[in-house]
Amino acid sequence: MSENPPPCPKCSCVYTYEMNALVVCPECAHEWVPGQNAEGAEGSGPEERVVKDAVGNVLRDGDSVTVVKALKVKGSPSGIKAGTKVRNIRLIDGVDGHDIDCKVDGFGAMQLKSSVVKKA
């Protein structure tokens, strides 16, 4: 047994105790194996991030998508029209919700929000 078991990952209670191979929280009754994350072996961190399009389809790197609404583009008088197809997207952790990195024909490299595209 260790002297100071870790605090509870659910409620942050410091009065946890060890029972066999588990650590137990007396306040919320949460039990876990020390050294694993809060979800156990199921979640493995930020690589489990799921990006969905405007209609709820899961997007992956390399997918093709279609723009579902007209988008204004700085420096361009016309913008991107609804129905424009974008191939070979890359999912990123962008700024302001822009989570798709891609190349749009006629505009070049840019970032899009997943909420304005649908999987093709």
Automatic annotation (TrEMBL):
Molecular-function annotations in GO: hydrolase activity
Cited InterPro entries: YjdM (IPR004624), YjdM_C (IPR013988), YjdM_N (IPR013987)
Keyword Hydrolase: yes
Record domain Protein YjdM C-terminal: where: 51-120
Pfam family name, one: YjdM
Keywords: Hydrolase
Top-rank taxon, per record: Bacteria
Domain Protein YjdM N-terminal, first and last residues per copy: 6-32
Family of this protein: Belongs to the YjdM family.
Protein name: Phosphonoacetate hydrolase
